[in-house]
Amino acid sequence: MKAAVGIDIGGTKIAIGLVREDGMVLREMEFPTNVDSGPDQALNKMVQHIRSMYSVEPNIIGIGIGSPGPLDTREGKILSPPNLQTWHGYPLVKKIESAFQTKVKLMNDADAAAFAEYYYSHRSGYNHMMYVTVSTGIGGGLILNGKLYEGALSGAGEIGHMSMESCGPICGCGKMGCLESFSSGTGMMNAWKQKLTRLQQPIDPNWTGKDLFEQAASGEMTAAEVVMNGVDYLARGISQAVQLLNPELVVLGGGVILAQPTFYKQIVQRVPSYLLEHHRRNLTFSIAEQGRNAGFKGAAAIIHAENY
Ligand SMILES: [Zn+2]
């Protein structure tokens, strides 16, 4: 069976996998990105690991790379991701192509995760899928007509930066009132702390998202309000995207969704109330299934899909 290499680049670590067409991971490895030491040292490690994969499978059909954006996917360059400061302008695709004479494709990391969910879990049942990941931020990816839809500048699916309020919390992107600033793990924690400060209630600096959800579940009012607000904004954001694109399936993933099944259920219950009857009737929800390897598996899946 054919195998492709998938690479998942993150601000803290880089994961590489050798993935078969059916999703079986034949080999995987991971190392720290060490952003401060620049991209060349990371490239050397990537090349070294990929070379060792050629000894497992000499007929690798291509290499897919998922990276935080913004990217220039046509030129194969990393543009200016905030968590890869020393990589700005780095021609990653050319560098990897010159090391291995094979097809190399660069894509947005949320697109790679979205495509992993589609290709390995849902492609036999659906043609139109929207993926939303909720963790420290909120990202998304779109599969339309059975294909990854990247948009003109590989910037499609940025659901986290949809403007929900003209005046709202300042988002990591610099705008005000983005969906991410209300409903991401970070956004909800910030809102909770601000509420408690305003009420002059004590804040434990060690609290995490887990504490927020536990306190909300036990009926603590400020935590419950923040989570309810997070659910409502997210449901509104998702419903607006659903009405624009009319997907049949919405897959929700990311650390917050996977750790908080009640949060997932609340969103699924809430979205339909914001939809037109026509959209509501044929919409299915699913929780992400591809786990922590979704990034490199999806990057490899794009290569498989193009070779199909
Ligand atoms: Zn934003």
Automatic annotation (TrEMBL):
Similarity comment: Belongs to the ROK (NagC/XylR) family.
Keyword terms, alphabetized: Transferase
Molecular function in Gene Ontology: glucokinase activity
EC number, as in UniProt: 2.7.1.2
Protein name per the record: Glucokinase
EC top class named in words: transferase
Pfam families (alphabetical): ROK
Species this protein is from: Rossellomorea pakistanensis
Record SUPFAM superfamilies: Actin-like ATPase domain (SSF53067)
